[in-house]
Amino acid sequence: MELRQLRYFIAIVDHGSLSRAAKVLHIVQPALTQQLQHLEEELGATLLHRSAQGMQATDAGKLFYEHAQAILKQVSDAKSAVTQSADKPSGTVALGIPQSVSGALAFPLLTAVRAAFPDIVFQLTEELTGNLTEQLKSGRLNLAILFDDGQLQNHFACTPLVEEEMMYITRADSQFACKRKSISLKKALQTPLILPSIQHGVRPGIEKVAREHGLEIEQVIDITSIAILKSALLADMGATILPAAPMLAEIERGELLAWPVSDVKLSRTVTLCASKNIPLTNAAMAVEKRVLDVTRQLCLQRVWPHTRNLMS
């Protein structure tokens, strides 16, 4: 198996066509077809099939695509580690960030990295926490922002960033709005709640605290997308329990209101993670430091609300 075969396969999947992939790769289509056949013979599996929509990956092809991307990413990182200067880092750095943190951290971080390191190709990926974990394990990501569930240290090198308070959030004029300055957990859980699905980093934490206090969520609407969750809140379908950061724009405009949960500690630890097994390039280490600097600044300036800085 050759690296070029991996690149060829990825190009076919990305472009959905042998002819388009051949054009992008600057090779003739028969040669591309031959390399694909050699790859499938070596693996003993069919990776692609023709459909009305073009060339599409089979189940085996989808799995191989993920591994191929990770392998090529690590090869690229290895080259960068040897050739780049510590004083002027360059190369590609991929950082994954959860949807519920993106609103607070993504743009300030992107701006800071581009200003400080113009030779770094900085790739920000917004995903669900579970997807980010798998991509970091496989090497497709250099770094990821994850939520510490007590198990992260078993798999990754971790740096806690902030502790983020969970808030009870409703539409400003909602029938579910709180009449006081805060709300009890029991009262909040009796409300129809719009929450991310169970595999999301927020939901297990809420359910764990509820169980510890002999409570359970009475009514829940599962919505994984932050954008759709906001729409459901604004339609007054229920309330949510989330950090304020992903709703900050709507809260500042007065469309949504947020209250603290008064009788229990309901929070999550936002953590910067890297692989224990794959070394960071100089560029990735430069971005890692910038994440810490930007996060610290956002907390000090209270731009990232309801957070406690965990960095020394």
From TrEMBL:
It holds the Pfam family HTH_1. PROSITE patterns: HTH_LYSR. Residues 1-58 form the HTH lysR-type domain. Belongs to the LysR transcriptional regulatory family. Keywords: Activator, DNA-binding, Transcription, Transcription regulation. This is LysR family transcriptional regulator.
